[in-house]
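Now for a sample.
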Amino acid sequence: MKKKAASAAVEPRGPQVQESDEHRYRSGEAARRAKMPPTTLRMWERRYDVISPMKSEAGQRLYSEEDVRRLVLLKALVRQGHAIGSIARLPREQLESLLQVRTETVAPAPRAKDAGTGRVVRIAAVGAAVQRWLALPVAQSGHAEHIDLLGLASLSEAGAAADRGEAVDALVVDVLALTRDVAAQVLEMRGRLRARVAAVSYAFGNAEPTETLRLAGVRLYRAPLTAVESRQLAADLLAGGAALEAVSAEVIGARMPRRFDDVELERVMSRSAIVQCECPQHLGELIMRLDAFERYSNDCMSRSVDDAALHRHLGDVTNHARAMLESALMRVLGAHAPE
């Protein structure tokens, strides 16, 4: 009895991985190695065709080391402001060139030395890992003598430094797990250390604390950082920390001190009857109310991490409004000064 002829093999669709090929990763592992959400990886592939991974016989996408490196490059460029749609199809050499140009152009520009101030930029680095990640980029920056890296072991040690009156231009914190309590501590330390810019690197975290920090203007990185990400982190910290004049009135965390205390305001307000103008009275009342609301916002921020970002923003806006009204009051007083 003749055996039935073997059925014809199904023609494979698309490139397939052979046994001799290099080790490859499934989508979840590839996303983890590139430090990006799997949903982002799937969206980039579906919408922009950023990579074309091989497929197994079962149709499973399998990613090479080269695929992962490309994803890391694309993510770094998107973080710098490039639209994914405009760079998705570029070859690796061009992506690396874009990243190098951006690093060389942006990183040195705002530093204190280049601005002619001669001022040292002070960076508080909380955690041994982030201190290691920053050491090489700082050393290679060409301006290491104008950078003071303050190494701190923990957020508690940062609090002790704040109690001693320490102040920094930039704060970066490395934590294993980003929780609500950690997010609250980071925001508190940013304020107490008077940091113009803050960043957090973390290995694990859920949506709530990350969104709280993002809304509050804190820059987020997934740990461990690659060499490219370490250079970008150093550039971000230096840029934010050294921008003294340009962003002093806008950047989160940089608040203006009061020009008039309550006693001085009361004295100024009493001059309304003398100068026959009620502007000093009205401006003084507004300044007092704004100062009270700023302090109220600070208290709310410290009570609940859920509202921390919102109340930090309200406090910043109120602080700047109060500073503007104080400037207006000084102009009014100057206009009515006795000749």
